[in-house]
Design a protein that fits this description.
Residues 6-124 form the Response regulatory domain. The chain is of the alpha/beta class. The protein has 11 helices and 6 strands. Strands 2-1-3-4-5-6 form a 6-stranded parallel beta sheet, sandwiched between helices. Strand 1 (5-10), helix 1 (14-25) and strand 2 form a beta-alpha-beta unit. The longest helix is centred in the last third of the chain and has 14 residues, at 186-199.
Length: 224
């Protein structure tokens, strides 16, 4: 992560952009480098400014946050730019497409200032952040929508313990919570997460969630 985390704020509501800017600029080690009122402007500014993190509202007029995320993450000139998606609703049809488009995670807009700052730092560090309430609702929605009935050849090489860890990640648990649930040490959890990232060629925790959903593992739950 850079010494100072450079943040681009993309939201169609000027009041919210201003609030996010005040929070970011008041946080040591962070600063706002730009603001965008729609997805197209976000892509243009991300290409120009190369921020570390884009706070991306998913629902914007014109080009929405999902399309903007896809443009940013598919452009090699912006390979270092990471996206933290923001949603107003804990059940938002845009969340899953945003993750598939390359977002490194998502938070609710009513997250506490501490949660938002922590999320920005986590994403800037190269990991993913997932709002647990959204994750659980997303899982329920996909489980009833037929999205998870696909074969899962990517999971064949995983150990039983790695599958257990993947299920818990998909349900929004942190490493510390996984450690407590499985009664294993925190370093052991981190080792399993690193192994999952390598075996599944996933860039971060958020992509592990996508893989767990699409493989059906999240729906099936803990392996027996």
């Amino acid at each position: 992560m850079a010494e100072t985390v450079r943040v681009l704020i993309a939201d169609d509501q000027a009041l919210l952009r201003g609030s996010f800017r005040l929070l970011v600029d008041a946080t040591p080690g962070m600063r706002t480098v730009g603001e965008a009122g729609d997805g197209a402007a976000a892509v243009e500014l991300a290409r120009e400014l190369k921020p570390d993190v884009v706070l991306m509202d998913l629902r914007m007029p014109g080009m929405d946050g999902v399309a903007a995320t896809r443009h940013i993450r598919s452009d090699a000139t912006m390979s270092g730019v990471r996206v933290l998606a923001l949603t107003m609703f804990d059940m938002d049809d845009y969340v899953y497409p945003a993750l598939r488009a390359g977002a490194s995670g998502f938070l609710l807009k009513d997250a506490s200032p501490a949660e938002l700052v922590a999320g920005i730092r986590i994403v800037a560090d190269g990991d993913g952040v997932l709002a647990p309430t959204v994750t659980r609702r997303l899982l329920a929605d996909l489980s009833h929508g037929g999205e998870t009935n696909r074969p899962a050849p990517r999971l064949i090489g995983l150990t039983k313990r790695e599958q257990e860890v993947l299920v818990l990640i998909a349900n929004g648990l942190s490493n510390a919570e996984i450690s407590a649930r499985l009664v294993i040490s925190l370093p052991t959890v981190k080792t399993h997460v690193s192994s999952l990232l390598a075996k599944l060629t996933a860039r971060d925790r958020a992509q592990l969630v996508v893989i767990a959903y699409e493989s059906g593992l999240a729906e099936r739950g803990m392996p027996g």
